[in-house]
């Protein structure tokens, strides 16, 4: 099974001044009844001191590492949620001086998957001094299972999400039933949202989630970068309101 990926892969693509994405290859996430294909994407921000902040690093390739080395020194490796961390140890090998930042629960999750990774600091509901001038952040609360840390790059007005919105383009898939599955899960472009299984973990605690959502909305993002599927390069506020309408009910 394959998913649409966003060629060219493993190369820096500018989003705005001091912010880039890198589209990665398909990965397969194992579930009880098989595996689900995902496209991958990381985000890189150049901080005011010239160092690089890397959100949800994808599998490193020599070409990508060479491009990044031209851009500046990698200083921060960020796991936004407990299922986005798999390549951080690989990046630590390339950049042993980088600081690895843990999302809530990622240590336990990695241990349960027998994936060795060492984090230096925990992410909190407040941006640390290392990047608070350039990037704001909050922990999106309310899920019984997974809290994602969301980020806002102030100068480019870009919201950076991992799984809170997924927006696959199954129309590019040869498999018709696959389109149906993505649609049923609520993660098909143009109506990408929080995946249904993740949405269900907020049941009974939507009031808490709404507080996080409204704070995020208050950033008034123009762009929204997602880890999976087509990202939004404009109309961020409208896209946020559309994709989080499940929280209004
Ligand atoms: Fe993900």
Question: Could you outline the blueprint of secondary structure elements for this entry?
Answer:
Blueprint: E1 12-16, E2 19-31, E3 34-46, E4 52-55, H1 62-71, E5 74-78, H2 88-94, E6 99-102, H3 106-112, E7 121-122, E8 135-140, E9 148-153, E10 158-160, H4 176-184, H5 196-200, H6 206-218, E11 223-225, H7 236-243
Parallel strand pairs: 4-5, 5-6, 6-7, 10-11
Antiparallel strand pairs: 1-2, 2-3, 3-4, 8-9, 9-10
The structure holds fe (ii) ion.
Structure description:
The termini are far apart. The chain has 249 residues and is of the alpha/beta class. It has seven helices and eleven strands. The protein has helices at residues 62-71, 88-94, 106-112, 176-184, 196-200, 206-218, 236-243, and strands spanning 12-16, 19-31, 34-46, 52-55, 74-78, 99-102, 121-122, 135-140, 148-153, 158-160, 223-225. It has one domain (12-247): Metallo-beta-lactamase, Chain A. A hairpin with a 4-residue loop joins strand 9 (148-153) and strand 10. The relative contact order is 0.14. The strands form two sheets. The protein has a seven-stranded mixed beta sheet with strand order 1-2-3-4-5-6-7, covered by helices on one side. A four-stranded mixed beta sheet has the order 8-9-10-11, with helices on one face.
Which features does this protein show?
Metallo-beta-lactamase, Chain A, 7-stranded mixed sheet
Helix amount, in percent? 10-25%
Q: Provide the CATH architecture.
A: 4-Layer Sandwich
CATH fold annotation? Metallo-beta-lactamase, Chain A
Principal-axis shape equals globular
Q: How would a textbook summarize the main sheet?
A: 7 strands, mixed
Low-confidence parts: none
Q: Largest beta sheet: what is the strand line-up?
A: 1-2-3-4-5-6-7
Protein structure class: alpha/beta
Associated small molecules: fe (ii) ion
- Summed over residues and divided by their number, the pLDDT gives a mean of 95
Highest-level CATH class: Alpha Beta
Number of helices: 7
Distance N terminus to C terminus? 35 Å
């Amino acid at each position: 099974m394959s998913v649409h990926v966003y060629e060219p892969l493993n190369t820096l693509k500018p989003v705005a001044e001091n912010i880039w994405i890198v589209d990665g290859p398909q990965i397969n996430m194992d579930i009880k009844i098989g595996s689900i294909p995902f496209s991958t994407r990381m985000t890189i921000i150049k901080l005011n001191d010239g160092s690089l902040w890397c959100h949800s690093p994808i599998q490193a390739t020599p070409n990508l590492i060479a491009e990044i080395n031209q851009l500046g020194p990698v200083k921060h490796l960020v796991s936004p949620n407990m299922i986005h961390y798999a390549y951080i140890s690989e990046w630590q090998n390339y950049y042993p001086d980088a600081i690895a930042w843990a999302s809530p629960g990622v240590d336990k999750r990695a241990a349960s998957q027998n994936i060795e990774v060492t984090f230096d600091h925990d992410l909190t509901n407040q941006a640390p001094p290392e990047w608070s001038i350039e990037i704001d952040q909050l922990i999106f609360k309310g899920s019984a299972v997974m809290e994602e840390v969301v980020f806002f790059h102030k100068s480019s007005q870009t919201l950076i999400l991992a799984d809170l919105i997924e927006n696959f383009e199954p129309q590019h898939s040869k498999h018709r039933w696959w389109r149906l599955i993505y649609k049923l899960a609520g993660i098909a472009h143009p109506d990408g949202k929080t995946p249904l299984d993740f949405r269900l973990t907020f049941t009974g605690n939507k009031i808490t989630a709404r507080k996080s959502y409204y704070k995020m909305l208050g950033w008034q993002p123009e762009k929204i970068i997602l880890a999976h599927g087509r990202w939004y390069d404009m109309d961020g506020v409208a896209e946020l309101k559309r994709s989080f309408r499940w929280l209004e009910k």
